[in-house]
Amino acid sequence: MDDALTLTQVTKRFGRTQVIDGIDLNVAPGELCVFVGPSGCGKSTLLRMIAGLEDVTAGQIAIGGRRVNELPPAQREIAMVFQSYALYPHLSVRDNMGLALRQASTPKAEVLTATDRAADMLSLTALLDRRPADLSGGQRQRVAIGRAIVRRPKLFLFDEPLSNLDAALRVATRIEIARLHRDLGATMIYVTHDQVEAMTLAHKIVVLRAGRVEQVGRPMDLYNDPDNRFVAGFIGSPA
Ligand code: ADP
Ligand code: MG
Predict the structure, then answer these.
(1) Which of 7, 9, 212, 226 is deepest in the core (most CB within 10 A)?
(2) From ligand 2's centre to the CA of 51, what distance in Å?
(3) Residue having the nearest C-alpha atom to atom 22 of ligand 1
(4) Domain named ABC transporter: which ranges (predicted)?
């Protein structure tokens, strides 16, 4: 079977600044892969290139074996969840969740079925007619996750989705994402600068530092056998 995601020498420069420096990576179907690293190391830029929100300066990106470098985001069969939720304020929860399908001319009944199902998975059924302004931060982030699920992407991309939540909600939402990952059998890339999130969620952790991969491995392997002091410091010591 093809890898869910293959990065080959992926590079990004903004002007003369090299932000991502020749990254190679394979993510297997169904894997939950966490990109972890300090602020400014290039995590969001890498994710945005996979999503097609940012051009690649050099290298190849393939999703499910298909080269996507030239494809716009809508054709990449991905769904992205941002720290900022990015919901439409004038639309109800139901319409926020169904929008991408409706834009793809999916039959109305099918959109409703998919929306209801995702709402059920995320305990959002009672909130479907509300607008984002009438929701808590945790509820908004569940809507953003629901919107991603409705699209049935080949690849879920999460960029620090818990950063705007308070500590208790962070743990609850993290557990929710892990459960969704199991239930959906989906491939997920999850970006965080939080070591605890990385250790508890990941099948595979990619430690990034200044635009390069420092080490890739299973959480306990990195913890027990770090390649260098940077990885040891990052994975070994809680935030
Ligand atoms: P992270 O998500 O790991 O915190 P980012 O990917 O956001 O890191 O940023 C990596 C580096 O790229 C930072 O130094 C940032 O300032 C720089 N950068 C990000 N976006 C741009 C841009 N549009 N133009 C110029 N520099 C950028
Ligand atoms: Mg970032």
Answers:
(1) 7
(2) 14
(3) 14
(4) 5-235
